[in-house]
Amino acid sequence: MTRLIEIEDLAVSFRTDRGEVEALSGVSLHLDEGEVLGVVGESGCGKSLTALAIMGLVPSPPGRITRGRIAFAGRDLLGLDEAAMTRIRGEQIAMIFQEPMSALNPVFTVGEQVAEVLRVHEGLGRTAARERAAQLLARVGIPDPARRLGQYPHELSGGLRQRVMIAAALACRPKLLIADEPTTALDVTIQAQILALLADLQREFGMATMLITHDLGVVAQVVTRVVVMYAGKVVEEGPVEAVFERPSHPYTAALMRSIPALAEGVSRLPAIPGTVPAPGAWPRGCRFAPRCTHAVPECGAGVPPLYPVAPGHHAACIRHAA
Amino acid sequence: MPPDAPLLAAQNLAKHYKVRGGGVLRAVDGVDLTVRAGDTHALVGESGCGKTTLGRLILRLVEPTTGSIRFRGEDLLALKPEAMRRMRRHLSVIFQDPYGSLDPRMTVAEIVGEPLRIFGQGTRAERRARVEALLAQVGLTPAHATRHPHEFSGGQRQRIGIARALALEPDLVVCDEPVSALDVSIQAQIINLLQDLQQSHGLTYLFVAHDLSVVRHIADRVSVMYLGRVVEEAPKAALFAAPRHPYTRALLAAVPQPKPGAPPPVPLAGEVPSPLNPPSGCRFRTRCPVAVARCAEDDPALRELAAGHRVACHLAEA
Ligand SMILES: Nc1ncnc2c1ncn2[C@@H]1O[C@H](COP(=O)(O)OP(=O)(O)OP(=O)(O)O)[C@@H](O)[C@H]1O
Ligand SMILES: Nc1ncnc2c1ncn2[C@@H]1O[C@H](COP(=O)(O)OP(=O)(O)OP(=O)(O)O)[C@@H](O)[C@H]1O
Ligand code: SF4
Ligand SMILES: [Mg+2]
Ligand SMILES: [Mg+2]
């Protein structure tokens, strides 16, 4: 398989009133062509920021990439100028968000927005773009697409808006689709529709997908490989079956124990004590140590690197140090 | 009140809103709900099906278009303002959004103590002691009392909201998506806390949730709502083991299981129709995989098919 994305030691800081605060600190991950990668972790751990860094969209200022490398199909993205990055965003990498309302422009019709992408990046004329937009809306399962083209985003339900976003994202047949919590705001019934649609399109277009979510059910059902993040770092990475069967970082293991869906039959959930530390308040060494039942004094000594647990399966915990 | 009478019994409750342009929006449209003391009674269903509105009707924060509510043996809707005011202390609410539901200008002690002050409970010193006790019960310390909500994480804010909800020792607490906005690891802490408090305070919960795995963990009974109606109501175990309504089945089948290799989620086709113009007959028929001609004509009533298991579907059999 060919590497599509390779991120090495990526760090991002934000300027705040408390000084410069690191929000991502040394994230490394990769994604092969055609692969579906899941990125999971709790609020603030850096999932969206990792995606924005790939897209060249880290808000700057106040944000700043302080070190690291992002390669896309062998090309160094961080060295590209804005014009080249805009082209990559339009043609090679597309992103969809949790709340499509924020990404769609409220004053343009759905048709204008999807057609716009096609005119700019595919060079289609007005009529051709509109026709192709209608085809795309039909392809993503929007009933009566010709009528929908003339509607404004607020006239659509959350599920339909997400379908429009997907249509716009797929307009140029990107190599990589980044989906940042695409179903979190939707009902489970609509979530199942959107997940099925994404799986279908993935098969048809063969694009790689990076799916960001905090829902372990979505991860288990949709992705082939998973990256678990905690407090600005990757703490575990591996094939989805392996990570669910043998969660090897204590955080991953504790997270899985604490969700009601996997705690069947117990009267009390094994909750993780404490709270996720905020950027700037990260403990020294392993950032999970203060909440970890396995922690020993050495855990505070240095940040553990990703140790191999099995082929393709790594965990950043000193319990796996050789 | 007879010893085995339910704490709450609502009948044929409805809330219709007149909307601009002249339509009528049927937010809640003929709901029966019986909640036993000490139970956690869950309300589930898709966004917009009327869960929050039903909770607000029961709290009498909105007045129903039709229907009756008996609470603690009294006709809640017949109470005069002064009697209703006294009744209010037995009813309480916890909201989803710990960010939006706490006044940012107040300290934690003021927020938690506010219901005590409004109801003129105790002296200032007694109220202060009570606030400290409440904070301790929800896992906060006296040191937190002088701080403001923005200094707390989402989970801690939810603890503050819970302390306030318990200040007047209510019987019934309407929990409207109390853990939906929280991180997974914090969600488990708050669920455990709610269960502990239910035990120690003898609370009854009306628990609105959209996460079915949370409901499966915490509920005793479940009412499933669709488009302003209850379509199925059953003890938790029966509902999850043998759902009888096609909508309940579809809802359960749509949840992705956190086990790789488990059967994939099954989408339910279509979207919820508008509550401005619900389908004739069974409201679920436009999405129902087993609908027959009769479903478009007759509105199915809730029928008891097994002990405590009620279903509103023409095709459901005992
Ligand atoms: N514009 C910004 N200014 C300051 N800090 C920021 C900004 N954007 C993000 N951060 C910080 O970066 C960290 C990572 O944020 P990110 O949005 O990647 O989290 P996430 O994992 O996507 O969380 P969520 O699940 O809540 O979406 C956060 O803790 C946040 O404090
Ligand atoms: N004050 C109001 N005026 C008009 N319509 C209302 C009002 N309050 C609620 N509604 C409508 O009533 C219906 C039921 O809303 P409600 O908030 O009870 O749903 P819900 O089941 O709690 O949904 P969610 O899961 O999204 O919280 C919706 O269609 C909503 O738009
Ligand atoms: S009454 Fe008919 S349409 Fe309604 S749920 Fe039953 S079978 Fe489906
Ligand atoms: Mg995010
Ligand atoms: Mg609601």
Describe it for me?
The complex is a heterodimer of chains A (322) and B (318). Chain A is an alpha/beta fold and 322 residues long. Chain A has one domain: P-loop containing nucleotide triphosphate hydrolases (Rossmann fold, 3-Layer(aba) Sandwich). Chain A is built from eleven helices and twelve strands. In chain A, the strands form two sheets. In chain A, strands 6-7-8-3-9-10-12-11 form an eight-stranded mixed sheet, sandwiched between helices. Chain A has a four-stranded antiparallel sheet with strand order 2-1-4-5, covered by helices on one side. In chain A, α4 runs parallel beside α7 and α7 runs parallel beside α8. Chain A is globular. Chain A starts with a strand and ends in a 7-residue tail after the last strand. The mean pLDDT of chain A is 92. By secondary structure, chain B is α/β, with parallel strands linked by helices. In chain B, 29% of the residues lie in helices and 22% in strands. In chain B, the strands form two sheets. An eight-stranded mixed sheet of chain B has the order 6-7-8-3-9-10-12-11, sandwiched between helices. Chain B has a four-stranded antiparallel sheet with strand order 2-1-4-5. In chain B, α3 packs parallel to α5 and α5 runs parallel beside α6. Chain B is globular. Chain B starts with 7 loop residues before the first strand and ends in a 7-residue tail after the last strand. The mean pLDDT of chain B is 94. At the A-B interface, α7, α8, α9, α10 and α11 of A face α5, α6 and α7 of B. The complex binds adenosine-5'-triphosphate (2 copies), iron/sulfur cluster (SF4) and magnesium ion (MG) (2 copies). One magnesium ion binds next to α1 of chain B.
